[in-house]
Amino acid sequence: MLGYTDDDIKNAAEIREWLTKQIMEKQEEIDKIKITLSLIDSVLKKGSFKTAANLNVTKSDLTQDKKYGSQLDSKPYKRTVTKPPDETRQKDIGESKAVEIKPIKRLKDNTLVAQVHIFPNSVEITPEENIKISLETPPFRSFFLNRILQGMKNKDLEKLKQGSLSETEVINFEVITDEPDNKNIKKVVINNYRDKERINEIFNTAAWVITRMLEKGER
What we know:
Elements: H1 6-46, H2 59-74, H3 86-92, E1 100-105, E2 112-118, E3 122-127, H4 140-162, E4 172-177, E5 185-191, H5 196-218
Helix pairs in contact: 4-5
């Protein structure tokens, strides 16, 4: 069959199932957004912008406002700087601290299997210490690395050729493994993701891939 192995066909079927699920989830999100948009449109239609005539502003009120305004203009302007709370300041220290941390849990027992640390310019996927998954376990290399991440990189390289993207903006990724066998995944680092849509795709795909890898390891 055109050189495809049974594992290739099985992986393709699993990927198709995942893609179908993604379409359904995205469609639900779109439907919710449409409902929200419809409600907003309804509010905007019922409530109109008030004009100056409807506000019944009297000449005396306008005179008082002008008088008050002239008093403000005569006073020296003093700028007040409000310090942000400690939590906000911590996020501004730099890229050393994650902006968001998202857990990946196994569906059947809700066990935490990995965490995704999202930084301003990078993403780190870190399996829990008790979770041992090899980079050779399908569909990590064939799907997550070669299809998803490399697919994003190929798109960036095309934009680089067109001159719409600089070399430093091209997405890149690295798999860090445990010593000494260099097979168990310790961390996956992805740099230059650039937009939220990619973050969502990386997270959703990683969650599905890690779950599938654990299932294969239990067999």
